[in-house]
Every structure is written in structure tokens, then in C-alpha cells.
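Data deposition worksheet. Section B asks for the primary sequence of the deposited chain exactly as it was used as input, without tags or linkers unless they were present during the calculation. Section C holds the resulting structure in C-alpha cell form. Section D is free text for depositor observations; keep each observation to a single sentence. Incomplete worksheets are returned to the depositor.
Section A, Depositor: J.P.
Section B:
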Amino acid sequence: MPLISDKDLAYIKQLLDREIKYDVRLINFTQEFECLYCRETRELVEELGKVSNKIKVEVYDFVKDANKAKEYGIDKIPATIIMGDKDYGIRYYGIPAGYELISFLEDIIDVSRRETRLSKTSKDRIKAINKPVHIQVFVTPTCPYCPKMVRLAHQFAIENDLIKADVIESTEFPQLVSKYNVMAVPKVVINDIVAFEGALPESSFIDYIILALEEHEHT
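Section C:
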């Protein structure tokens, strides 16, 4: 049974046909056992691959293709990478369902265009960052405020190669929820140093990134 209805697929096809510019690769890491939502995530990615001839899908087994997982820095599954002409550091851990499907589609469009929709001021601030940044955004499929933070994190990653941005579907990774004390979503963790909850404007999000880098200098 398809994970996306025929009606939604028709809308997605229309959207991508209109918006997508250059080829995009969806690289999915999975395994067929002891992995919640691995099969569903793979099937969803494959369904999207059939919608546009500009979306190329690659599927790897997390165990059998361990070297490939290591190459891309994948340490948990299900995992999906959205790549364009290069690896922008965009990662989805878990199934991009519910509200997150919209984020996933908008990320595909941005990567296909090799540009983001951030303001010029935000782009300038992000491009000025010269130290590695790792952003983790904890979400759930039913959270209407999560997509905003997902989109910002991934747009930051597109704008600066030093920024890596992970989306983590909270219910699928309870050990990380416990580690980072996720009590509400969206929760954003930056470089394991600074964290905040809720949906913030892009300027405030960037302020937290700068704060995390400053905190790191003092540790």
C-alpha cells in the first residue's frame, strides 16, 4: 500500500515539476529487520523518486554497506540524505511523514536550485561562520511548529559547508531524546553545547549558533 495517496502524489508531482531545477539524489540507509520505520522510509523515498525524473534514489543497507554509511557519517537508521551537486550536510533520521513531508519536499527544491530562501542578512551572517557547526533538530510528525526550524537548519547547511544539520524524529530515537532531555518539540541542539525549544525567527536561530561557537571557545 502506497504511503502517499494518489491525490497527494499528483500534487507533489505538480509541485516538483514546477519548482525543481537540477538533479537531486536521495540516499537512503536502511535494513530490513529490527528497525522501526526503515521499510516505510525507504518506500516513501522510492515513491518520491518515481514522481520526478530529476530525483535519483540510492538505497544502501546500513550493515552490508557499512563503508558507505561511514563515508556519509551515518550512525543510525532510517537515514536519508538530500544531495545536489555536493553533500550539503542535510540529514533526516526517521521517516519524513506528517508535517515533515512538506519540509522534506521544500529541502529537495532548495537543493535542486542550489540556493535558499533566507534573507540576505541571514545569508551574510551564516556565510561568515568559519568553524564547524552541528545542528540537531528534534521533531515529531504531528508538530506544526517543527518544519520552520527544520527548514532553517537545512538552509543554513546549504549556505555554509561547515554547517551540518540533522533532523531527528523523536519517537524513533528514544535514546537521543533521553540524552538531550527532549521534553518538547521542536528542540534544537547546537554543537552539544547550546539548546533551545520552540520556533524562532531565523535571526534568533543564528544568534544561538553564534552563542554555541562562543561557548565552545570558553570550554
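Section D:
Helices lie at 6-19, 38-51, 66-72, 99-113, 120-127, 146-159, 174-179, 202-217.
The longest strand covers residues 24-30.
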